[in-house]
């Protein structure tokens, strides 16, 4: 063979190999590089996108109604990469301020969405109504939505409560709504539509099992949720509303269909008496939701054996023996967030890592809702927990935001998720 021809052939083959190697390298980089997390939905939400939101959830109680330093809270949300802001509107009674609050919520929600339009802001429609509701006029559009005669009047407190007097003084001088009553449906529709108009895309419906004593087949809850979702389909930012509630029984399922888009419940933290002030998580403790979230067909149309859920550090008051191991739902005599807030900086940060990874392994359907801002009970010098780094804006900040950011950056994929 001609030596010159052989040399040129070898050079050509080498060049082709280099080109193929480069192409393969580009393909490998494209397929192995981390993909951007998907937070897109419209009208319906896939399980994957829903779980992406739940995995970046944080409680920011009353953020849109004036609690805390809004600017610093917004800075923290951006810093840590939060996507689901729980209890951003958390109105417990105080209905006389509703109309004023709707305006403020709309303005502040717009500011949040300027920073990150993917963020879901959550409001709450709780298991309480007070006599103040009689100061709020019923809009004409609410009557029409429920096919009720249009009247010029305010809401009627007594018509929202249980007619037989059950739980009418459950919250001191205030009571629990009965979802089977037309006035309650009217109120819930009015609240939900008003929140949607303010830019809210999630609503937590509180302790629904207190409000359905006359709705065992869930017909009334299904009706009002259908009406609310119908309004969202026309008026919400992304044409849907993501609903959840506290479900000690595991969830509301009617004719095989789940009423909520996801479930939620307190963590139910187990104190360790042999280690003062320390506590762990355990499947089966109290009424914790671990491995108990019911499944079915979701409002978005996909089917699951267990609906994804959030587990949160709840606030509900202290026991009569704060600081002592009293068991049940209390943690060393405190509610969950108060116990957490009073721990040392290092213990809190270690515990968040523990809780996040434990839940991912024990029940991958569950997601830890990080504590961001929440009221506490019977703490000597602080009546509120803020995860914010300490600064002039938030001098009582607990400084946990960087830990939350680091946990999320590492993600659930780092845990050994052997349980399906």
Structure report:
The N and C termini lie far apart (64 Å). Helix 7 packs parallel to helix 9 (219-235). The chain has 420 residues and is an alpha/beta fold. A hairpin with a 2-residue loop joins strand 6 (253-254) and strand 7 (257-258). Residues 1-34 and 416-420 have low confidence and may be disordered. It contains twelve helices and 15 strands.
Mean pLDDT: 91
> What is the molecular shape?
globular
Number of helices: 12
| Rg (C-alpha, Å) | 25 Å
Main structural class: alpha/beta
Give a quick account of the main beta sheet: strands, pairing sense, barrel closure.
9 strands, mixed
**Proportion in helices:** 25-40%
The arrangement of helices and strands along the chain is HHEHEHEHHHEHHEEEEEEEEEHHEEH
Number of strands: 15
Uncertain runs are 1-34, 416-420
What is the subunit organization of this protein?
single chain
Strand content bin:
5-15%
- Span from first to last CA? 64 Å
Annotation keywords:
single chain, 420 residues, alpha/beta, 9-stranded mixed sheet, two-stranded antiparallel sheet, 12 helices, 35% helix, globular, disordered N terminus, disordered C terminus, signal
Q: How do the strands and helices of this protein lay out in sequence?
A:
Blueprint: H1 3-32, H2 47-54, E1 57-60, H3 70-80, E2 84-89, H4 98-115, E3 120-124, H5 140-145, H6 157-160, H7 182-197, E4 202-207, H8 208-211, H9 219-235, E5 242-246, E6 253-254, E7 257-258, E8 263-266, E9 270-271, E10 279-280, E11 296-297, E12 303-304, E13 309-312, H10 336-341, H11 345-362, E14 366-375, E15 384-386, H12 401-410
Parallel strand pairs: 1-2, 1-14, 2-3, 3-4, 4-5, 8-13, 13-14
Antiparallel strand pairs: 6-7, 9-10, 11-12, 14-15
Helix pairs in contact: 7-9
Signal peptide: 1-24
Keywords: Signal
């Amino acid at each position: 063979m001609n030596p010159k021809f052989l040399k040129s052939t070898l050079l050509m083959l080498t060049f082709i190999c280099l080109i193929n190697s480069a192409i393969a390298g580009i393909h490998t980089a494209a397929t192995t590089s981390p993909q951007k997390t998907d937070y897109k939905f419209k009208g319906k939400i896939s399980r994957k996108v829903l779980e992406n939101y739940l995995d970046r959830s944080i409680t920011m109680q009353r953020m849109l109604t004036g609690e805390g330093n809004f600017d610093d809270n917004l800075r923290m949300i951006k810093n840590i990469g939060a996507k689901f802001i729980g209890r951003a509107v958390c109105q417990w009674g105080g209905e006389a301020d509703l109309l004023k609050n709707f305006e403020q919520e709309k303005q502040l929600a717009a500011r949040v969405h300027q920073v990150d339009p993917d963020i879901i802001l959550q409001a709450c429609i709780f298991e309480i109504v007070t006599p103040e509701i009689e100061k709020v006029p019923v809009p004409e559009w609410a009557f029409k939505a429920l096919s009720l005669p249009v009247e010029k009047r305010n809401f009627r407190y007594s018509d929202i409560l249980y007619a037989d007097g059950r739980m009418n003084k459950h919250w001191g001088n205030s009571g629990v709504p009965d979802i089977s009553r037309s006035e309650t449906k009217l109120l819930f529709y009015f609240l939900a539509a008003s929140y949607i108009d303010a830019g809210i895309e999630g609503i937590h419906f509180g302790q629904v099992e207190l409000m359905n004593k006359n709705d065992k087949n869930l017909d009334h809850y299904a009706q009002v949720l259908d009406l609310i979702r119908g309004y969202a389909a026309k008026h919400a930012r992304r044409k849907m509303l993501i609903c959840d509630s506290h479900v000690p029984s595991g969830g509301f399922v009617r004719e095989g269909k789940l009423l909520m888009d996801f479930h939620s419940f307190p963590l139910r933290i187990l104190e360790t008496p042999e280690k003062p002030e320390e506590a762990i998580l355990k499947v089966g403790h109290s009424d914790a939701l671990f491995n108990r979230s019911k499944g079915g067909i979701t409002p978005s149309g996909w089917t699951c054996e267990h609906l994804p859920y959030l587990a949160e550090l709840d606030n509900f008051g202290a026991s009569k023996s704060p600081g002592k191991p009293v068991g049940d739902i209390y943690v060393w005599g405190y509610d969950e967030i108060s116990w957490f807030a009073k721990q040392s900086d290092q213990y809190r940060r270690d515990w968040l890592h523990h809780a996040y990874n434990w839940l991912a392994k024990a029940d991958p359907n569950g997601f830890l809702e990080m504590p961001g801002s929440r009221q506490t009970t019977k703490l000597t010098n602080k009546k509120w927990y803020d995860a914010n780094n300490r600064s002039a804006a938030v001098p009582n900040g607990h400084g946990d935001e960087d830990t939350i950011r680091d946990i999320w950056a590492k993600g659930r994929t780092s845990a050994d998720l052997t349980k399906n």
